[in-house]
């Protein structure tokens, strides 16, 4: 196992940060590393919003469900799927049949920005920093868009806290490779999932900073028994993603 693979498999979400700034120029290097990610047809359908205004950070704490580390981290970024820039570039060519808002455009932009963010996360961790993705950005996407002046064809996908870790959480177990790596056909993985439930129950009961009696399957239940963020479809349509 080389150092890159060791880094990738040692990821933890960091939610407590030291009160210190990152060195000048480091964030720029992290974003440049993010830009090195693959991008569909070289579209580069993403923008990254750096939030340095602490009043806006505090508003984002509330908009993301009271996640205080949004304000306490060294840097807080909002990763946006951005079809505005490529759409306008296509229009500037003089092409008369430019079509916007297609489902594929939404998917391309969402995948593009996710790949960029993961590169940023890996680059940050290679520098001794910790990160935490903030999906709570989508709790109130219109309010976030208004706060950051996001135009049509740009939507906030998630946030990311970056800073120097002030705690040392355990690495959370992942599903066994045998459950996710399938050969030639989709095979049954119920046996691996059952074993993983036991692994996760053991992890939750023994992890640092508290324990709970649950497992992986029970943690998934809200995803399929509650209507999570039902506002997203209408929000995306209003943002110009008609999903046709």
UniProtKB/TrEMBL annotation:
Residues in Nitroreductase domain copies: 9-164
InterPro entries with a match to the protein in the record: Flavin_OxRdtase_Frp, Nitroreductase, Nitroreductase-like
Record flagged with keyword Flavoprotein: yes
Alphabetic keyword roster: Flavoprotein, FMN, NADP, Oxidoreductase
Top-level taxonomic group: Bacteria
Keyword Iron-sulfur appears in the UniProt entry: no
Family, similarity comment: Belongs to the flavin oxidoreductase frp family.
Name the UniProt record assigns to this protein: Oxygen-insensitive NADPH nitroreductase
